[in-house]
């Protein structure tokens, strides 16, 4: 097993190098993440100062002259630095934390606009946009956010516990069976960042990621309109043959392509899959080659994922399928 | 006892031949017989050795993982194997290394520090150790043949339910860990009774070495924390095997119930590991500074406070589960508060270092302690950071947390452990470990550790989640991970140097240098297999410093119990607070019985895991049989009063609260009660989550009041039988049929009450698989059956003792133990009936 896997891994290496969206909490582009980043630096600098203080005291305790050492040797040191000082610092920190939490709770209560239902499923994300006017638009593995507008995420799971984490936007929140957890986020600047499942969810947990696309409100509205529409009919000979293959090979048993007979709901909705920034929950870049590779070799690229590998297609058929899927923008 | 100056307990010269007799009585069996040894220095060394082996094995797994993660998109390990390896690494480090290692130090060092001849239940600790070694090795070996669990060491359902993890992998975790928990509890009982009842005369609680305090608190925490995870593992295994939906949301269960139970254990667990290590540091620093610990009382308070607070923190592992803001605030505050006791200890250590007349000596133990201080303080500071809820939203389940807890655990426990190896090796080795190799080991480990784990703080906030077997190499994590991997190998090299040192210099046996560090505590008295020649009278915290002639006096037999008056193994039992001599405890010696019992217990659990039910039952019967033979040899008759000091004669058999066995029984009852309280919490918790599946609205109402009424009557009647039987125990040895019948009736009533309870619910049509309500109703009976089974065996055992004329009104500890547990079981049973039958009626 391991030799074949390594070999397949080697082949896949170049494919995996896709777009390089960051998923760092150090580089925030969401309101919560910005607040937490400030909190982090306050605590880190304060903590570093305390750390240095302890080290210096320990050094003096060991190497200091007898007179200096005797000044450290009483219970006074314990009472002041071991009890008094932490009580003050910790109380301040606690209040700081509560203030941030409270602010988050208020943002949550105030939002009446867009809601996005995200369901974690082994090992991808089902994403449903719920607009204020009652429309429901299904997509997958990508979260689009209008910059400056609070958006409430409704987090659920279809199987085991997952955790939704887009570090540049906000902290994480778990997806737990039987519950709906809500989190309100606000993107502060346009750009593409990456997020990932943070709760170990079995087999391909490492390959359960997504992209966050923060857009200006106008760009977001335009994108949402396109996303709400049915799939574009295939353009050209290859894609047309590809669609034919898609529909006759049973792909529609699991996947939906709106506007065609394919209406499966087990796997991700593919209506606009070509327009996304990645494939297979941010495992591969979005390209015709990647589509072809995943169809044939998905159990090596993303082991244990629920899609069976399709080795039945000829090289030409694979090209057709890939060009069809890539064209679903 | 008066404080000094005091009269020597045995001022006269001792007769010839006493030392030879002690040597003969306490001799360690040779050859294969070594397996039957029970002496704490022998099995303690074995225990530490086994724990260290698991540390090395789990460390090798860590190196495999670090190799896989050295660069992005690596395929050195497969996804499935990596998932097994990280699960096994965490489980092994927590359950097979950390807890056993500190418990092992307790077994080995505690009797020496208290100058007791052995722990009060030598075979019980030997049993716990063998069960752990056999079970641990089988559990660990699953990773070699692709059968290791892969649900993470925390095993969150639903991922670990049969639906998502078919096969036996998860069961190995549940059953393997289940009985390792049992061995931890056996050890905890031993340590509590040991610390409270086998101290030397004069060593009041206020003069007890800090390590003994730490072990006492450690053991108490095990008693209250481990039952929660035992219940959790029972629930999960029952759901996996029989489909009782405790954790399935669709049937009214809740995945978060597991998390609550697991972390109610899991957080105290961290302090269970840390407190003894902190206790060891508090013992070593005064020696290296040659001055008493500054703030002894503050440290004792800090240890107790840590133990107490640690039970109020568990939810900080669940900040991101979407629990309400008020809970977040409470647990955030509690998580920060626990930093204060640690602060007290850190500054107390610094003050002690400064307090010596000479400068703090830099030896290998000192280096490891300073390394500990550096690493642990840093880990504590990041701990405060993650206690701030909004920051935890980012850090949780990222590599920042991996860095944080390795700083706390490796810093807080592994570095003190290595200091301990170097410091206390002369107690069991005839040669000291090398200062030169030790320095190499330290610097490699210290530099390696920080190189490996410091960058992970950054990796985590740069977005890398935990438990991923690979990562794309375009996210900027590669360099940081490569550094971490290099650090891991440097640290491993340090451990390697230590192993070389062990091989070259560790020689098990007596005759090591006496008190090489100039310590002030009793474990550095002259030692042999029987521990110290006589048990010293203690008047201060550092007896060896305050009474320079003590070693000589003790070795000349001028203190208590300089011989073996009953001609067998024995030690002195003193009162719990004041340490006044009370009686001479007759102790069992080497035996095969506990070994067979341990193998049988391990076999039972492991065979059950691979669904070999008949063999499992056979193995279980073997274990119980061995336990019965083992206990049959105990409860030996009184040898009358014996002289332990000039003019001081003590009894050799006591009953009631004076007896060490009564104390152990009380601790066992606390364990059982903790288990039941966890169950009670779970019942109410699931009701708050899913009131809709609860009777009477969502499930068949409980049976008529006749059923619980009859069950309750049986329990009370049974208790009456035991009470009566206890009053009329015969004064003379003889077969008293009436009393035997009473005991048998009591056993039958105890079992009958459970059977009736189950039957009643079955009649209503309620099935345990219907909903979480049904599962909880029957679970009460599962717990009650468990204790009823034990109680019934104990009653029948007492009847058998009566039959063989070994139970009288004087020699009655066997009966008293059965009766104590019987009364507890009646209390638990009545409470259960009230809950199961009363609560739904209250709702309806």
From TrEMBL, chain A:
Subcellular location: Membrane
Entry GO MF terms: copper ion binding; cytochrome-c oxidase activity; heme binding
UniProt cross-references to PROSITE patterns, sorted A to Z: COX2, COX2_CUA, CYTC, PROKAR_LIPOPROTEIN
Annotated GO biological process: ATP synthesis coupled electron transport
SUPFAM superfamilies, A to Z: Cupredoxins, Cytochrome c
The Cytochrome c domain, residue ranges: 237-329
Source species, domain of life: Bacteria
Membrane-spanning parts: 37-65, 77-101
InterPro entries per UniProt: CcO_II (IPR045187), CcO_II-like_C (IPR002429), Copper_CuA (IPR001505), Cupredoxin (IPR008972), CuRO_CcO_Caa3_II (IPR034236), Cyt_c-like_dom (IPR009056), Cyt_c-like_dom_sf (IPR036909)
Signal peptide range in chain numbering: 1-25
Catalytic activity: 4 Fe(II)-[cytochrome c] + O2 + 8 H(+)(in) = 4 Fe(III)-[cytochrome c] + 2 H2O + 4 H(+)(out)
Gene Ontology cellular component annotations, sorted alphabetically: membrane
Keywords from the UniProt entry: Copper, Electron transport, Heme, Iron, Membrane, Metal-binding, Signal, Transmembrane, Transmembrane helix, Transport
Record domain Cytochrome oxidase subunit II copper A binding: where: 111-226
Family membership: Belongs to the cytochrome c oxidase subunit 2 family.
Protein name: Cytochrome c oxidase subunit 2
Source organism of this protein record: Devosia subaequoris
TrEMBL record, chain B:
GO CC entries: plasma membrane
PROSITE patterns (alphabetical): COX1, COX1_CUB, COX3
Organism: Devosia subaequoris
Translocase in keyword set: yes
Metabolic or biological pathway, per its Swiss-Prot or TrEMBL entry: Energy metabolism; oxidative phosphorylation
EC number of this enzyme: 7.1.1.9
PANTHER family: CYTOCHROME BO(3) UBIQUINOL OXIDASE SUBUNIT 1, CYTOCHROME C OXIDASE SUBUNIT 1
Domain Cytochrome oxidase subunit I profile: 20-539
NCBIfam families: CtaD_CoxA
Bilayer topology annotation: Multi-pass membrane protein
Pfam family, one: COX1
Keyword terms of this UniProt record: Cell membrane, Copper, Electron transport, Heme, Iron, Membrane, Metal-binding, Respiratory chain, Translocase, Transmembrane, Transmembrane helix, Transport
Gene Ontology BP terms: electron transport coupled proton transport; oxidative phosphorylation; respiratory electron transport chain
Stored Gene3D superfamilies: Cytochrome c oxidase, subunit III, four-helix bundle, Cytochrome c oxidase-like, subunit I domain
GO-annotated molecular function: cytochrome-c oxidase activity; heme binding; metal ion binding
Transmembrane segment boundaries: 42-64, 85-107, 127-145, 172-198, 210-232, 244-265, 271-289, 296-316, 328-355, 367-389, 401-425, 437-459, 479-500, 592-609, 615-632, 662-685, 705-725, 737-756, 776-799, 820-839
Listed name of the protein: cytochrome-c oxidase
């Amino acid at each position: 097993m391991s030799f074949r896997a390594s070999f397949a891994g080697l082949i896949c290496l170049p494919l995996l190098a896709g777009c390089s969206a960051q998923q760092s909490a150090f580089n925030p582009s969401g309101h919560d993440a910005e607040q937490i980043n400030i909190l982090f630096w306050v605590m880190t600098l304060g903590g570093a100062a305390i750390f240095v203080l302890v080290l210096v005291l320990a050094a003096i305790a060991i190497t200091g002259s007898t007179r200096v050492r005797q000044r450290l040797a009483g219970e006074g040191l314990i009472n002041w630095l071991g009890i008094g000082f932490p009580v003050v610092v910790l109380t301040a920190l606690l209040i700081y934390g509560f203030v941030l939490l409270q602010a988050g709770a208020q943002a949550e209560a105030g939002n009446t606009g867009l809601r996005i239902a995200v369901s974690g499923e082994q090992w991808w994300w089902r994403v449903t946009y719920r607009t204020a006017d009652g429309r429901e638009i299904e997509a997958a593995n990508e979260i689009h956010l209008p910059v400056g507008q609070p958006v409430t995420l409704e987090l659920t799971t279809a199987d085991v516990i997952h955790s939704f984490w887009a570090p540049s936007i906000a902290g994480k929140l778990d997806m737990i069976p039987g519950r709906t957890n809500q989190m309100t986020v606000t993107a502060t600047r346009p750009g593409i960042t990456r997020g990932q499942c943070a709760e170990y969810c079995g087999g391909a947990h490492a390959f359960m990621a997504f992209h966050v696309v923060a857009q200006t409100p106008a760009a977001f509205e335009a994108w949402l309109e396109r996303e709400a529409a049915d799939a574009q009919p295939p353009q050209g000979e290859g894609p047309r043959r590809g669609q034919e293959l898609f529909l006759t090979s049973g792909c529609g048993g699991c996947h939906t392509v709106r506007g065609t007979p394919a209406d499966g709901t087990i796997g991700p909705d593919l209506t606009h899959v070509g327009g996304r920034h990645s494939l297979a929950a941010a495992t591969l870049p979005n390209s015709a080659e990647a589509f072809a590779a995943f169809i044939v070799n998905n159990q090596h690229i993303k082991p244990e994922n629920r899609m069976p590998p399709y080795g039945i297609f000829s090289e030409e058929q694979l090209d057709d399928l890939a060009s069809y899927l890539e064209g679903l923008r | 006892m008066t404080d000094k100056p005091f009269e020597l307990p045995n001022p006269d010269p001792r007769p010839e031949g006493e030392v030879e007799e002690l040597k003969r009585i306490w001799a360690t069996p040779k050859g294969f017989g070594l397996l039957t040894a029970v002496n704490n220095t022998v099995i303690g060394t074995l225990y530490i050795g086994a724990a260290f082996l698991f540390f090395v094995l789990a460390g090798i797994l860590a190196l495999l993982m670090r190799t896989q993660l050295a660069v992005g998109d690596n395929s050195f390990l497969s996804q499935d194997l990596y998932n097994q390896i990280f699960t096994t690494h965490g489980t092994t480090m927590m359950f097979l290394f950390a807890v056993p290692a500190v418990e092992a130090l307790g077994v080995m060092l505690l009797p020496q520090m208290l100058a007791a001849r052995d722990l009060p239940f030598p075979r019980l600790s030997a049993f716990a150790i063998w069960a752990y070694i056999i079970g641990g090795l089988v559990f660990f070996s699953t990773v070699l043949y692709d059968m290791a669990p892969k649900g993470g060491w925390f095993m969150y359902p639903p991922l670990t339910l049969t639906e998502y993890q078919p096969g036996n992998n998860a069961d190995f975790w549940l059953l393997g860990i289940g009985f390792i928990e049992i061995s931890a509890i056996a050890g905890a009982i031993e340590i509590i009774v040991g610390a409270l009842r086998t101290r030397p005369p004069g060593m009041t609680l206020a003069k007890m070495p800090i390590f003994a305090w730490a072990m006492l608190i450690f053991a108490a925490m095990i008693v209250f924390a481990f039952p929660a995870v035992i219940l959790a593992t029972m629930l999960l295994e029952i759901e996996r095997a029989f489909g009782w939906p405790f954790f399935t949301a669709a049937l009214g269960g809740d995945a978060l119930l597991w998390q609550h139970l697991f972390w109610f254990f899991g957080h105290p667990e961290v302090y269970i590991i840390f407190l003894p290590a902190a206790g060891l540091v508090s013992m070593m620093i005064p020696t290296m500074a040659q001055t008493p610990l500054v703030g002894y009382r503050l440290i004792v308070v800090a240890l107790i406070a840590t133990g107490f607070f640690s039970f109020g923190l568990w939810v900080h592992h669940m900040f991101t589960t979407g629990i309400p803001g008020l809970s977040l605030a409470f647990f955030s505050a509690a998580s920060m508060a626990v930093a204060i006791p640690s602060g007290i200890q850190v500054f107390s250590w610094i003050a002690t270092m400064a307090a010596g007349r000479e400068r703090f000596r830099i030896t290998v133990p000192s280096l490891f302690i300073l390394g500990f201080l550096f690493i642990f303080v840093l880990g504590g500071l990041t701990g405060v950071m993650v206690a701030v809820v909004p920051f935890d939203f980012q850090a949780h389940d990222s590599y920042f947390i991996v860095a944080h807890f390795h700083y706390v655990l490796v810093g807080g426990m592994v570095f003190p452990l290595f200091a301990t190896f170097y410091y206390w090796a002369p107690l069991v080795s005839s040669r000291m470990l090398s200062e030169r190799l030790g320095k190499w080991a330290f610097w490699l480990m210290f530099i390696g550790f920080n190189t490996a784990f410091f960058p992970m703080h950054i990796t985590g906030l740069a977005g890398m989640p935990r438990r991923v077997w690979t990562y794309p190499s375009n996210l900027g994590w590669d360099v940081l991970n490569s550094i971490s991997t290099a650090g891991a190998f440097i640290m491993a090299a340090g451990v390697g140097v230590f192993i070389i040192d062990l091989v070259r210099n560790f020689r098990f046996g007596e005759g090591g240098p006496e008190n090489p560090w100039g310590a002030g505590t009793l474990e550095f008295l002259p030692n042999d297999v029987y521990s110290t020649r006589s048990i010293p009278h203690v008047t201060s915290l550092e007896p060896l410093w305050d009474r320079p002639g003590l070693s000589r006096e003790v070795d000349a037999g001028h203190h208590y119990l300089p011989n073996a008056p009953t001609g067998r193994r024995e030690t002195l039992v003193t009162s719990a607070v004041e340490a006044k001599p009370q009686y001479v405890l007759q102790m069992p010696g080497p035996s095969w019985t506990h070994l067979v019992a341990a193998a049988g217990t391990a076999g039972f659990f492991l065979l059950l895991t691979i669904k070999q039910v008949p063999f499992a039952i056979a193995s279980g019967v073997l274990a119980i049989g061995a336990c019965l033979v083992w206990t049959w040899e105990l409860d030996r008759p009184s040898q009358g009063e014996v002289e332990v000091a000039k003019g001081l004669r003590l009894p050799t058999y006591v009953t009631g609260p004076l007896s060490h066995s009564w104390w152990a029984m009380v601790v066992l009852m606390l364990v059982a009660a903790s288990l039941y309280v966890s169950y009670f919490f779970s019942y109410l918790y699931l009701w708050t989550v899913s009131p809709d599946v609860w009777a009477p609205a969502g499930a068949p109402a409980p049976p008529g009041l006749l059923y619980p009424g009859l069950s309750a009557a049986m329990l009370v009647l049974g208790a009456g039988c035991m009470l009566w039987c206890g009053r009329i125990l015969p004064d003379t040895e003889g077969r008293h049929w009436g009393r035997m019948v009473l005991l048998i009736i009591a056993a039958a009533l105890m079992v009958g009450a459970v059977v009736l309870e189950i039957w009643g619910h079955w009649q209503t049509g309620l099935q345990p698989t219907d909903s979480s309500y049904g599962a909880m109703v029957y679970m009460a009976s599962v717990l009650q059956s468990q204790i009823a089974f034990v109680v019934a065996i104990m009653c029948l055992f007492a009847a058998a003792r009566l039959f063989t004329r070994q139970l009288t009104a004087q020699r009655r500890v066997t009966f008293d133990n059965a009766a104590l547990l019987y009364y507890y079981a009646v209390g638990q049973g009545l409470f259960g009936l009230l809950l199961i039958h009363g609560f739904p009626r209250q709702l309806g």
